[in-house]
Amino acid sequence: MAIYAYSWWTFLLIFVRITSFLLTAPLFSGRQIPVIYKIGFSILLSILCASVVKEPIQSMSLGFTVLLILKEFIVGIALGLAATIILYSVQLAGTLIDVQIGFSMASLFDPTFGANTQLTGRLKNILAILVLFTTDGHHLLIQGILASFDWVSLQASVPSWMDGRLSTFLLECIKQMFIIGFMMATPIIGTLFVVDIALGIIARTVPQMNIFAISPPVKILIHFLIYILILPSFFYLLNVLFENMFGSMSSILKIMGV
């Protein structure tokens, strides 16, 4: 009977970590996936992990159990955020472009992030998700949460929460998000900035021309032309993005596992 009790506590802690990871991880956290499917998938992964975990839970007090549940919740959240923050750079790039082109007035609900996003940001999100599925990135995300039990055992403490290493690394992820987002948006933003200067010169030299009626279609046309030209470089940046995303998951496991 005691063996079954130990197995139950082990399963519960594993389930908390996996569920909290799926709540924040890319692809799995989107509202397009029904909650019942997420719960069922978490239970399936938890059963598989509970059967091979190296350190099953022994008898412990109620207070210590609550602390372990809280720790597992934070570990799953931190691991999912490390990947999600990097992927937000795609939406950031789309938002910057839409502000420059004027598409920011129209917004769509993005179920992947559970928030409103602009047209270009939505397009970039779809392309990024398709590439992530094509390259089996969802398998690597699952492999990352399963590997976390080798780095951070169920009964281990996480000293990085107190010395600031974890928060510092998450801030580094945010910095990488802005860098990659600006890299994705810079070609179009720079081109549209030159177009704005040219239209401003035309408006001063030919005042009879209604520049407010000409500017939007011209900028939209140039936007799509440049977008087609730089589309191969976007997929190259996606490769860099995914490398940083999986690298950040590996790094955060090393930080919490020390």
TrEMBL record:
Its main location: membrane. The keyword Cell membrane applies. It is a multi-pass membrane protein. Keywords: Bacterial flagellum, Cell membrane, Cell projection, Cilium, Flagellum, Membrane, Transmembrane, Transmembrane helix. The chain crosses the membrane at residues 6-28, 35-53, 73-97, 177-202, 222-242. InterPro entries: FliR, T3SS_IM_R. The keyword Nucleotide-binding does not apply. Pfam families: Bac_export_1. It is found in: Cell membrane; Bacterial flagellum basal body. PANTHER family: FLAGELLAR BIOSYNTHETIC PROTEIN FLIR, SURFACE PRESENTATION OF ANTIGENS PROTEIN SPAR. Role in flagellar biosynthesis. Belongs to the FliR/MopE/SpaR family. This is Flagellar biosynthetic protein FliR.
